[in-house]
Amino acid sequence: MTDTPAHPRPPAADTAAETRPTSPEPAGFDDAALREAMNRVRLEVGKAVVGQDGTVTGLLIALLARGHVLLEGVPGVAKTLLVRAFSTALGLDTKRIQFTPDLMPGDVSGSLVYDARTGEFEFREGPVFTHVVLADEINRTPPKTQAALLEAMEERQVSTDGVTRRLPDPFLVAATQNPIEHEGTYTLPEAQLDRFLLKLIVDVPAREAELAVLRRHAGGFDPRDLAAAGLRRAATADELRAAQRAAASVTVSDDVLGYVVDLAQATRSSPSVQLGVSPRAATALLAAAKAWAWLGGYPAITPDHVQTMLLPTWRHRIRLRPDAELEGVSVDAVLGSVVQQTRVPI
Questions:
Q1: Cα distances (Å, whole numbers) of residue 278 to 54, 66, 282, 293, 304
Q2: Which of 315, 309, 304 is nearest to 276 (CA)?
Q3: Kind of pairing, strands 157-160 and 163-166?
Q4: How many beta carbons lie within 10 A of that of residue 53, not counting itself?
Q5: Which of 33, 86, 87, 201 is the most exposed place for a label (fewest CB within 10 A)?
Q6: pTM of the model
Q7: Helices (H) and strands (E) in the chain — how many of each?
């Protein structure tokens, strides 16, 4: 897996909170059966999306680690289709928000609307009230609207007029963005970037994969009709929640914990870095490595799991010095150097 790729704090108790009914927790699941269900999800997504196996795995890792994903790529590489197919394979509700320069925060989280019949204001839920939120082209809207997602992503709730409303569980924000050099894009604030567990680069597919895409379209494939493409639900919400608990239970030794800390400190002392990763980024890397280890059937994470997940987990959390950027230094190159220079525990 070349580019697969924190547990958000649970919402604080609120006497005015409107809680949604939750189904009772199911009995224990077998780990092998849960992993098989997650693998079926990847196979189902492959019925609609070709050549993006690493990105599909990254989405699954983020969901298992209860995180969110930022997908970056040029227009036309199936980022939106990928998220729609992923939610369909999991049988989860999904809503799409097209981010534009005139989008308002209430268009995302919801707002109070006056009801002339009752003479009272009632809350009208925004599209964030769903299991999978597809935030399309998130960097085409100003930071004020981008910030409307912060509470939802971190606390999994929306607060309006003194009332806290919980979001469904499971909950995943999958945001797509165009490269920053494209016209009409805004730089995401650091606080917003930090809420994404992973940043995955969606590249243009290789020749054979692109040829397979054309063959499908020549055969009548319609990306707007996933049911006709044969996509079916491959896992239940109960299985997903059980898999999340299983991934969180993967053990980690003190040596590996120290390795994560050493890597984090190495980013802060790199001569090319102006702002290294935070302790939140270290916990994010730990959560992602646990999910990746669990998918592979490992009872504990190893340095290899940490190294595999380091790039997608930290590449969006580092700010380079201006002189390093002028010299053409990339964040990915800096992180590669950090891995090479940090001692690996035996």
A1: 26, 19, 7, 23, 21
A2: 315
A3: antiparallel
A4: 16
A5: 33
A6: 0.85
A7: 14, 11
